[in-house]
Every structure is written in structure tokens, then in C-alpha cells.
Amino acid sequence: MSNAFVRGVEPVPYRPHGLPVAAYATYAQAQRAVDRLSDEGFPVEQVAIVGTDLRMVEQVTGRLTQGRAVAAGAASGAWFGLFVGLLLALFAPQGSSWLAAIVTGVVVGVAFGATMGFVGYRATGGRRDFTSRSAIVAARYEVLVRGQRINEGRALLERLAAEPDGAPLLRDTTPAGTSQPSSVSSSAVAAAGPSASPDVPDRPA
Fold this sequence. Notes:
Alpha-Beta Plaits, 2 domains, 3-stranded antiparallel beta sheet
């Protein structure tokens, strides 16, 4: 069960507040921007980095065969067996061979790991004959500032972007032919609260 449903516990991560002062293509650029704000004495406790347009990316790293599955399992088992063998050697009775304990641990670990690798590969039934790694990435990373120093933070980051080694700011990326009610993204407006929403005139009766 998520912590969001536990009474008295604030959900993590919490909902960010503030207005966007800059947007970057990578998290490293946004992190560097906040670091620069800190170097300039800006109160970074009023800053948040928010990733928008999240996507789950699974990068395929190679083909998985039965031999590779067994070899990977054996390698993992060898490391675990080495750890167990070292523990046995440390607490072995005086006069016993510590080398034999280590070798025994490695051999047993390799055998166990190879077996588990074989069983795991056969259990897939050939439906996933590849290896991959997954990550959650964002299309853009917005730097949000709350409080009374929003304009100061925006000016500092624009000055950083103008430097030769500064991280470039992302401009409006709305595709042509689509409308956008405000220069502030909808996610940032929601994060900033009702006070950040643009005023909308009442419709005539």
C-alpha cells in the first residue's frame, strides 16, 4: 500500500509549488542551473526541479540465449559464493583450511547460480530472449521557484544560459497549429496553486 493512504504521513514525492523560471532538455542541465543559483546565494530551498511529459524507456542491450543466461547466473552465484566462503573462513575453527572454505563457497555458488539461470530462462518459454534496462525519463525539466524572488531567479538563469558554457534554455515547444492558453505549462500552474492561474473574464449572460 502506498504511503499516501497512511494517516498522518505526507505523500512522497509531494506536490511541488511555484512558477517555472526555466526549462532544460536534461536533468543534468537543470541540476547545474540550481547549483549555479546556490553559488549566487539564491535561496534554493524555494526551488524545485519538475520533470514533465514522463516516459518509460526500455533500452534493449542484447540478445539473451540459454548459454548467456546460465553464464550470468553462474557469475552472480560466484560472487555470492565468494562472500559466503569468506564468512566461513573467518569463523572456521582454528586449524581448518580457509582456502578450502572459500573455494567451496565459490563452487557451490556457481552451481546454484547456473541452475537458477537455466531455470529462469526456461521459465520464460522463449517470450523474452533479450536483455534490457528501463528508466523513467522526462521530455523537459522545469525549474520552479516559489516566493517573492521569481524574477530574480529567472534573471540569474537567463544570464547563465548566455554564458559560453551555459546550459541552453528550452523555449516554447508547442507544436504549430495547437493553442496554449498561457506561457506557463498546465502542470506548473497546477503545482503553483490557484493564485498562479490566469484571470479569465466572466462570460456575458
